Amino acid sequence: MKQTLSILLGVALAATAFGDSLKQLTMTVSTDGPDLYADGSQVLPGETYLLVYINKDKTFDGVLADKSLVNAQDNRIALECPADPAGGRCGFQAIMYEAAQYGADGSWALVLLDTRNAKGVGGLVVNQSVVTKGVNLSTVENTMGPEAMDVSGSVLTASVVSKVAKDTPTPVIASLDPKGDEATIRIKDISAGAPYQVESTADLASNSWTVPEGGQRLQVESHGVAGGSELEATVQTDGSAKFFRVVIPADKAN
Q: Which domain holds residue 241?
């Protein structure tokens, strides 16, 4: 499941053609919307976008589940932008910076994070997408008028799962308590920087696993067991599930 957003650089937002001789610039960003998650649903109010600067001749290598960058040496977060209070778009944001801070020979990407959890948004990053259509990104010298970017392409060029730290332990089911049409599962060997997912199957030989209701987007913040280092999830079953497993729906960083 190794995936990277490096293929997106061909449609990533090109750097503005101002030289480093300018002393101070102001960049503004917003989207027309409606922006969508990878599953086709509209972006929720308060969701997070990242405006990322990419060094010259480098690629955007993605975001870890905790919102930090996979490649912090060649990628830099210039701005964290919340979705509009009404949802569906990146609200207007501005950043003032010295011209030499983000060179004109680099490039930009506006990255939509999927941080949905049981409380709405604000959890770990489960998926991420680069937004390329309807992006209003412009840079101005503080004494000049704006030069808007011409951006084209689909609303989301691609969506990939987030990454977790390479030393993230493999989760283990500590206990399983089935009762009727539901099962309470406790998970150990967990990390606050990783999302988890419970899957079930009726036949191990089939290698066909499904995610029962209640088994998605588990994380320490919203599913932690009080006083312990375990996660607890109650999943719904139809009575046919005989086997359960817990996985991290993310790649590990190299």
A: 172-249
Q: Assess if residue 254 is contained within a domain.
A: no
Q: Is 23 left (phi over 0), alpha (psi -120 to 50) or beta?
A: alpha
Alpha carbon distances (Å) from 187 to 196, 197, 209:
9, 10, 18
Cα separation of 114 and 89, whole Å?
A: 13
Q: Which tens digit of pLDDT belongs to each residue from 198-238?
A: 998 888 888 889 899 888 889 887 777 766 688 998 998 87
Whether residue 34 is preceded by a cis peptide bond, meaning omega within 30 degrees of 0, is yes
120, two tokens? 């709405």
Check if the beta carbon of residue 60 is closer than 8 Å to that of residue 8.
yes
pLDDT tens-digit map of 104-113: 888 899 999 9
Question: Is residue 6 helix, strand or coil?
Answer: helix
